[in-house]
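Expect sequence, tokenised fold; for instance:
***
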Amino acid sequence: MNRRTFLATGGALAASSIAPQAFALNSQLDASEKHLHLYNIHTGEFVKTTFWQDGIYIPEAMDQLDHLLRDHRSGEATLMSRTLLEDIHSLQTLFKPNQAIEIISGYRSPKTNEKLRAQGRKVAKRSLHMQGKAIDIRIPGVNLRQVRHAALAMKSGGVGYYPKSGFIHLDVGRVRQWGS
């Protein structure tokens, strides 16, 4: 095993063992409010909001988030999975609570999904993006591999790793992973 492989493996193991404890600590520290700071790279829009307070979701904030995460090609929006938003909040709290997470793709309408498939893009025929249950993100200044390991540690759903494109895919489907 060369030095680079050894260090990468060691870092991955360390990140995966620390992440669950960090998520538990974050949820204990921030029990009364949950915030999100997101930037849609396609529309240029930012949302920085408290979306959960004193045990309930804030409808106006949820509307803002659903709008931000709309299909940027068609303008169509849907009700995004609240579990997915909680997962994004966990990652943001763990890594960069005061910096926007960049949104590459949120909701994708069935028509847009089929159009991308017809263009030869590698999108799933039954993509969870079409149900508001998937998102593609990156956190500027944070190693993508670290974000991937933290997302895997949540065991909340699927995690796709796209290092060449510079993002990870998160969904709240069955727990699985792909990408090298």
Summary: The chain is about 40% helix and 25% strand. Confidence is low (pLDDT under 50) at residues 1-13, 21-30.
